[in-house]
Fold this protein.
Amino acid sequence: MSVIEAMQNSDPACPGENWFLYWRTSSSLWRSKIEKMRGGKNIIVPINWSFHSETGDRVDFGNDRPESNLARLVEMAGECNRTVHFYLPVTPAPFLQNGGLPHLLARQVAQGPDQLAFAMVDSLGQLLKIHSFFDPRVFQSFTKFIGQLAHYFTHSGVNAKLWGLECGYIENGGYQSFLFDRSKTYGQAFTRYMGLAKEEAPELEKNLNSLSFEKKMNMRFFWTIRDLYIDALKKELSTHFEGILKYSFMGASPIDFLDRACGNNNFSKYSEDMLESLCRDVIPSSILIPQSGKKTIYSRQVDELVSYSLVSSKIEDSYYEEDRQSYFFGLVFFHLFLPDQKVPQQSHMVDWENPLRIEERWMVQGLRSFLKNNFPYTYSLIPIEKFRFDETVSLSSKVSVIDGELVDQKVFNNVLKTFMSGGQILMDRSNLSPFFLLKLETFFLENSLAVEKIFFHTNVHSALLGDGKLVLYEGGLLNTKSESEKNEFWEKMSKFFNLVHIKNIKNDEVTSYWRTRSSSPSELNYEEIRRLSLYNGTSYKKKIKLPLERNFVLLKILDEQNAVVQSYPHQIEVQLLPEGAVSLDFGVFSV
Amino acid sequence: MGSLNNFLVSIYHFSGPIISTAPALPSLPPSNDLENSADFFSKRDEPYLENLVESGGHWIVAILGSKGHLDFEQAREIYGELFPNRSAKEKHLGAFDSLDEIEIFMALLCDKLQMERAALCSVVEYNAIIENLTTLEINDPSRPNLAQILFSKTREIKLPENSKRKGIFGKLFH
């Protein structure tokens, strides 16, 4: 590593991933730092509200400090042939002091789900605390600030895209927003909200002693406040607003804080959190992890899987079809549908006491561990609201996994449309309402579909219609089985759906990630190109054996780093030394 | 302070008086009664999953050693041995009826992990310490890290001496 690279690596204004934290350096150094940034032409510039306003009233955009001059920053970036993308946090931001709040508004440290004060360590080793966004004064000042920002952009001729930034973290396999709060400030705000709700609907009074009802209202209140911040941004900065980006920050969870505050970084956890973020369509970021402390292999993962691909695909202008051949996207076999937490009133069946209930069911049924061992990170977790029939997408290559509890009329209609168009559905019927169970049976009868009923560790009913497959299983019964029985069940299910994949990467300590892209005109022998990236973050040599399935042809070995790849007729062997990594491109075709 | 290493800090919260209204688990059908078992599972409300919701009592949110948080795996085993009739599957560790129970538990854990000292820190205390903390010198080994700060500012538990522990713990389990 050159001296310049080392200096770049430890530059507080450039924490990596092409982020530029303008307030951390003198404006006289902006040009030289921007010129040295190596991650492509897009520069991510988060707007630090607290830097432009200490009190929440008066705002500075370059009158007092040249470092506040965002227009100059955009102009300078343009001169360096870079494009600035502004990120404006609509939740507390873990990389900003006070979560981004001006000093006088940072009154109450927010508390996370464990009731622990939200705190974190940034890339400079500084202690940062998240403050509550549920104080009405914060919201009032926020709307004032973005109004002033909009005015400034207009009058300064700033022509840059602006994204609303939602910040969160991954913990216990789930995503948690930093907007979440259970401090006294939140309690007071929630009490006011409940008071207003009672005024509008006096019949709510009788539910007030119900814990379940309170949790439901907590959820509704959270989404109301979240939407308030986002709608304010959309309204004031409509000319520049491009959309909302959801990020998770590695090293920012309460557990990570406890470790990092004791001088430890758990890179294997950060790696898992990053991949879990990708499965949830959340952009992972490592800017809180000090550049100098990042293991090379972790940095490479971030660059390959996030910075150079995912972020670009999210923030760049829509591109022509042929450009898609150069972008790899995460390979997805399973769409796991989650309750749409935003609209609790729409589903009477969903248990709002525990929005993670469905995910916990999959855990207990052994689905998550099966996927982890056999189809690591080749699944996506999506709100049920996004389940719709899309005839432009190839339906036969993915399996939609739906818990019966989530089925309402709209979902039911989409299930049938997807099935009839060749899609594959796997549904846990344990919590499917009798009404929809009957409708399904009627559908089978009316269409003269033969329904095969078998018992394999649980009751399984399956129907075929052309390429379409609809499988109903009793998840409740599966819960009582042993781990090996559950694994056998899911193995059988995956074979039934004929998922074309290379499995058996049996090495827990080697991180693997599959991506896919369309084949280019010179690759017409193949239906798609899949890339497997392997990373060894351990201090030991690791060997991976990949059975070469008949639908796969090894096309390219790329970016070998401390790695040796040997290809045999039916197998590929990869040896990774400590900090080793390699990517393999495969052509995939139907037999 | 920088040299203090062999200790644990248990961060706990109190979620209210213990309420024994958790529904009793229904008795499962005999395992060979396959014909009825599917129907059974499709109709009931899965109360066994609702045990995942915390009830009253004291709950350990996190356990910190000098190098960071402790995974709960070993702690759950010890909890299970100490309270065989209580479920240990919740996200937090518990419930404990009283701080005395937590102290006994921590003594067992220290014994297993060969830790010499332990302290209890309530979530309220933890939050107050964090709110008042302005810096953390994580890169300076001569300065206290978070675990050491928490240990110094909270109540240390008096652990039985090593030679006496086996006798006391033996009595607990027999």
In short: Confidence is low (pLDDT under 50) at residues 21-53 of chain B. The radius of gyration of chain B is 20 Å. Chain B is about 40% helix and 20% strand.
